[in-house]
């Protein structure tokens, strides 16, 4: 872990937060908002600065990477990464939010089997157009769509192009139980899995909503590496700190550049250095001892320009 950690101490009777750099892979529990999870983790680590890499609905569980200190500079890197989910779908019931938290709009009989579900799902693999749900944080005229929805107002939404890279039915040896099935999906940013569930239900003719959702991966990060708040609370401080990943763990999708001592020193002072590469490429940059310096971009005429650097690198 590339982290600078000062033991916490009290000033004027108040506990002073410590400077801490690293990434916590949290396995978020059901019913907890992303912000509540972040604040709980921040208190556990007594961290001075913290942020998340994109929210996960209270209904959803699973992987929520949290950033402390210098890692917050790179939190946006995961926003564009592919996501992986395991979703439980309830057929025959539609809701106003397309998930289990919404009010029931309609109930219809379910007369389909697993082969019908597989055939319907096949139509949603690849690039598809999705209409964002009204109960979402997308904004219209500066106001989130969910505020319109709560006021009983439905506004027109423009469909968005998303990519469903993989979509497969799980528990394939069992029949549908109470009209439910489970699928695993790997998708691009901006994909609404509850919209996907509802659209599959529409195609089957009986309607559906998302009953449960678990995020299992973001880019190269996997929920198998994640830890719950309950687990973290039961650990001593040193063991908890040892679970943090370095800030550059968020940057696995970027190619790596290794600089000699002279160029590393120039870059740390915010100066561009010579580097042969394709213009526009972003790189994670290290010194000769593999000390992480930051993220840079290849610009015209063979120069590597710093974008975000680790303080004190």
From TrEMBL:
<dbReference type="GO" id="GO:0003723">
    <property type="term" value="F:RNA binding"/>
</dbReference>
<dbReference type="InterPro" id="IPR015947">
    <property type="entry name" value="PUA-like_sf"/>
</dbReference>
<dbReference type="GO" id="GO:1990481">
    <property type="term" value="P:mRNA pseudouridine synthesis"/>
</dbReference>
<dbReference type="InterPro" id="IPR014780">
    <property type="entry name" value="tRNA_psdUridine_synth_TruB"/>
</dbReference>
<feature type="domain" description="Pseudouridine synthase II N-terminal">
    <location>
        <begin position="42"/>
        <end position="193"/>
    </location>
</feature>
<dbReference type="Pfam" id="PF09157">
    <property type="entry name" value="TruB-C_2"/>
</dbReference>
<dbReference type="GO" id="GO:0031119">
    <property type="term" value="P:tRNA pseudouridine synthesis"/>
</dbReference>
<dbReference type="InterPro" id="IPR036974">
    <property type="entry name" value="PUA_sf"/>
</dbReference>
<comment type="function">
    <text>Responsible for synthesis of pseudouridine from uracil-55 in the psi GC loop of transfer RNAs.</text>
</comment>
<dbReference type="InterPro" id="IPR015240">
    <property type="entry name" value="tRNA_sdUridine_synth_fam1_C"/>
</dbReference>
<dbReference type="Pfam" id="PF16198">
    <property type="entry name" value="TruB_C_2"/>
</dbReference>
<dbReference type="GO" id="GO:0160148">
    <property type="term" value="F:tRNA pseudouridine(55) synthase activity"/>
</dbReference>
<feature type="domain" description="tRNA pseudouridine synthase II TruB subfamily 1 C-terminal">
    <location>
        <begin position="256"/>
        <end position="310"/>
    </location>
</feature>
<comment type="similarity">
    <text>Belongs to the pseudouridine synthase TruB family. Type 1 subfamily.</text>
</comment>
<dbReference type="InterPro" id="IPR002501">
    <property type="entry name" value="PsdUridine_synth_N"/>
</dbReference>
<keyword id="KW-0413">Isomerase</keyword>
<keyword id="KW-0819">tRNA processing</keyword>
<protein>
    <recommendedName>
        <fullName>tRNA pseudouridine synthase B</fullName>
        <ecNumber>5.4.99.25</ecNumber>
    </recommendedName>
</protein>
<dbReference type="InterPro" id="IPR032819">
    <property type="entry name" value="TruB_C"/>
</dbReference>
<dbReference type="Pfam" id="PF01509">
    <property type="entry name" value="TruB_N"/>
</dbReference>
<feature type="domain" description="tRNA pseudouridylate synthase B C-terminal">
    <location>
        <begin position="194"/>
        <end position="251"/>
    </location>
</feature>
<feature type="active site" description="Nucleophile">
    <location>
        <position position="57"/>
    </location>
</feature>
<dbReference type="InterPro" id="IPR020103">
    <property type="entry name" value="PsdUridine_synth_cat_dom_sf"/>
</dbReference>
């Amino acid at each position: 872990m590339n982290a600078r950690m000062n033991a916490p101490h009290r000033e004027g009777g108040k506990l002073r937060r410590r400077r801490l750099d690293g990434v916590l892979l949290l396995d978020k529990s059901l019913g907890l908002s992303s912000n509540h999870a972040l604040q709980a983790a921040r208190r556990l680590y007594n961290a001075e600065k913290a942020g998340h890499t994109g929210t996960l609905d209270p209904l959803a569980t699973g992987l929520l990477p949290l950033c402390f200190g210098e890692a917050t500079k790179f939190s946006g890197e995961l926003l564009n990464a592919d996501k992986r989910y395991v979703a439980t779908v309830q057929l025959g019931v539609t809701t106003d939010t397309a998930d289990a938290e919404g009010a029931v709009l309609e109930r219809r009989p379910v007369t389909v089997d697993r082969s019908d579900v597989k055939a319907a799902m096949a139509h949603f693999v690849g690039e598809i157009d999705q209409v964002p749900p009204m109960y979402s944080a997308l904004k219209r005229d500066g106001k989130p769509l969910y505020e319109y929805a709560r006021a009983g107002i439905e506004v027109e939404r423009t469909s968005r192009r998303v990519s469903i890279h993989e979509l497969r039915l799980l528990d394939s040896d069992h029949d549908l139980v109470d009209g439910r099935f489970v699928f695993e999906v790997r998708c691009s940013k901006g994909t609404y899995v509850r919209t996907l569930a509802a659209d599959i239900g529409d195609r089957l003719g009986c309607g559906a909503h998302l009953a449960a959702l678990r995020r299992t991966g973001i880019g190269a990060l996997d929920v198998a590496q994640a830890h719950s708040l309950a687990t973290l609370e039961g650990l001593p401080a040193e063991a908890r700190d040892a679970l943090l990943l370095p800030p550059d763990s968020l940057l696995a999708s970027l190619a790596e550049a290794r600089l000699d001592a002279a160029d590393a020193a120039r870059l740390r002072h915010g100066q561009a250095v010579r580097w042969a590469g394709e213009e526009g490429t972003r790189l994670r940059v290290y010194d000769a001892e593999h000390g992480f310096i930051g993220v840079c971009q290849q610009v015209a005429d063979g120069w590597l320009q710093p974008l975000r650097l680790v303080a004190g690198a």
